[in-house]
Amino acid sequence: MIPNPIIKVLSTLSCHEVRHLLMGGQACVFYGAAEFSRDCDIVIVADHDNLQRLSGALEELQAECIAVPPFEPEYLERGHAVHFRCHSEDAMGMRLDVMTRMRGCGEFPVLWERRMTLQDGDGMTYELLGIEDLVTAKKTQRDKDWPMVRRLVDAHYEACRDSPNEDQIRFWLKESRTPDVLIYLVSEYPVLFREVLAHRKLLGAALSGSRSAVQQELSLEELAERKADEAYWLPLKRELEQLRLKRRKNKSD
């Protein structure tokens, strides 16, 4: 069951017709890879009209911008997340993080075309980041995200393994982090394995049937992604630090 404060945030966004996609931990809950998430993370299209609709939703939620950067389009366009805290009665204390760009993910129109639409028993509709894009977005330098990536792909595999289509098999070959699954896939689907091998060299290790060899390659792949994420965020973090310094200076003057 989705906690009421999160339903309030998402329903308010929908009522104001904010074009958005749910991502982060709460999206992982919907996909069956997590049990609980306290925050609400969304990606939006950052055109003028949508930002105006978002402003209306934030006003209804009594959401204040916390920390840095400020809620301005230029920061969203550069890849920053803007953070809000809700103070309305039904969403008290909920944190809402808003982004428009994520490392490795496409532009919003592409993400929208690949989205997952779900509806609950009360008729509430949720627009989620597609699982392929959610997995990509979760490949960060944070320790907690990598077990989530594995659980996301494993949950998808368990749900679809009995009668998969080729796109699903390609997804598992590209993204699975479970050695036994990869060893099975490269053996069972040799044509698709050879197709995906050009994009993911570690699949070659799965041919040997050695779990330890595959796990070693997975660890190296994870390390490379962590370093890439760190490099991506480094200039953004420097900019945030300058904004913090400027804010402290203004407060002291």
Instruction: Write down the domain tally.
Output: 2
Order of helices and strands: HEHEHEHEEHEEHHHHHHH
- CATH level-3 fold name of the largest domain: Beta Polymerase, domain 2
According to DSSP, the number of beta strands is 7
Distance, first to last CA: 48 Å
Described by the principal axes of the CA atoms, the overall outline is: globular
Indicate the proportion of strand residues. 5-15%
Helix content: 55-70%
Question: Topology of this protein?
Answer:
Elements: H1 4-15, E1 20-23, H2 24-30, E2 40-44, H3 48-60, E3 64-66, H4 73-77, E4 82-85, E5 95-99, H5 108-113, E6 116-119, E7 125-128, H6 131-137, H7 145-160, H8 166-175, H9 179-188, H10 190-197, H11 203-206, H12 211-252
Parallel strand pairs: 2-5
Antiparallel strand pairs: 1-2, 3-4, 4-5, 6-7
Helix pairs in contact: 1-3, 7-8, 9-10, 9-12
Key words describing this protein structure:
253 residues, alpha+beta, Beta Polymerase, domain 2, five-stranded mixed beta sheet, two-stranded antiparallel ribbon, 12 helices, 7 strands, globular
Task: Outline the structure in words.
This protein is globular. It has helices at residues 4-15, 24-30, 48-60, 73-77, 108-113, 131-137, 145-160, 166-175, 179-188, 190-197, 203-206, 211-252, and strands spanning 20-23, 40-44, 64-66, 82-85, 95-99, 116-119, 125-128. The longest helix has 42 residues, at 211-252. It has twelve helices and seven strands. The protein is 55% helix and 11% strand. A hairpin with a 5-residue loop joins strand 6 and strand 7. The strands form two sheets. The chain has a five-stranded mixed sheet. Strands 6-7 form a two-stranded antiparallel sheet. It folds into two domains: 4-137, 2-Layer Sandwich (Beta Polymerase, domain 2), CATH 3.30.460.40; 145-231, no CATH class. The chain has 253 residues and is an alpha+beta fold. The mean pLDDT is 94. Helix 7 packs antiparallel against helix 8 (166-175) and helix 9 crosses helix 12.
